[in-house]
Amino acid sequence: RKEVEQDPGPFNVPEGATVAFNCTYSNSASQSFFWYRQDCRKEPKLLMSVYSSGNEDGRFTAQLNRASQYISLLIRDSKLSDSATYLCVVNMNNNDMRFGAGTRLTVKP
Amino acid sequence: DADVTQTPRNRITKTGKRIMLECSQTKGHDRMYWYRQDPGLGLRLIYYSFDVKDINKGEISDGYSVSRQAQAKFSLSLESAIPNQTALYFCATSQLAGAYNEQFFGPGTRLTVL
Q1: Which of A81, A87, B38, B84 has its Cα between 20 and 30 A from that of A44?
Q2: Phi and psi angles of residue A68, each rounded to the nearest 5 degrees, phi first
Q3: How far is it, in rounded angstroms, from Cα B21 to Cα A83?
Q4: Predicted confidence (pLDDT) per residue in A49-87, tens digit
Q5: Across chain B, how many H-helices and E-strands are there?
Q6: How far is A3 from chain B (nearest CA, A)?
Q7: Which residues, in sequence order, are CB contacts of B106 under 8 Å at separation 6+?
Q8: Complete DSSP assignment for A85-107
Q9: CB A39 within 8 A of CB A102
Q10: Contacts of residue A87 in chain B, CB cutoff 8 Å?
């Protein structure tokens, strides 16, 4: 089993749609969690950290479920500019960061 | 100017050649990392360094070596390149902080080994 698993997609949604991605992780001792965004042929950039109580940043909501070992990212009112690959990142222990393979999102007009 | 820079941005080389990829940062961060990205596999950690005198192996260090010449510089070497080292390589930095330390990535180096 991979340490961090994501549905690779692609997710193709119309503008204005709500879309959700899940990510599962294998190490129950994992300390912290993140969603990064990667545009085609570019470097990953932090989208948001994921806190135990869940957190929201504008149209983006991140949730953590430690009991089931998954995190999620919800995007509301999708924009064309949201088209990218979304990487789930798990800090396994002592800053040993493990990346999922990414979920590709395309938002269409 | 970019905070994390990588040179070269693209490189094509032949099997058996020695290759060095350079990373420099102006963020003043102590921690630096080298990753490779392959389609369908995500980013995998090759080596990381928490300060100038500290070097640690990551998931996939075989076939690679690193040098932390200064706080701002971290280079990755392939002593004898092989085709399965063809990949996109990223350098990253982070502050010496707690669990929620953001990593900042360079623009990447696309390496092709023929």
Answers
A1: B84
A2: -100, 0
A3: 30
A4: 998 888 999 999 999 999 999 999 999 999 999 999 999
A5: 0, 11
A6: 11
A7: A43, B2, B4, B5, B6, B23, B25, B90, B91, B92
A8: EEEEEEE-STT-EEE---EEEEE
A9: no
A10: 42-43
Residue B97: pLDDT band with limits 50, 70, 90:
low
Contacts (Cβ under 8 Å, ≥6 apart) of A43: B90, B105, B106, B107, B108
Structure tokens at A5: 């698993």
Amino acid A62 reads: A
Kindly report the nearest CA distance between residue A73 and chain B, in angstroms: 17
Determine the straight-line distance between the first and last CA of chain B, rounded to whole angstroms: 33
Whether residue B94 lies within 8 A of chain A, CB to CB, comes out as: yes
Closest among B53, B1, B46 to B21, alpha carbons compared: B46
Across the interface, do B107 and A101 touch by the CB < 8 Å criterion? no
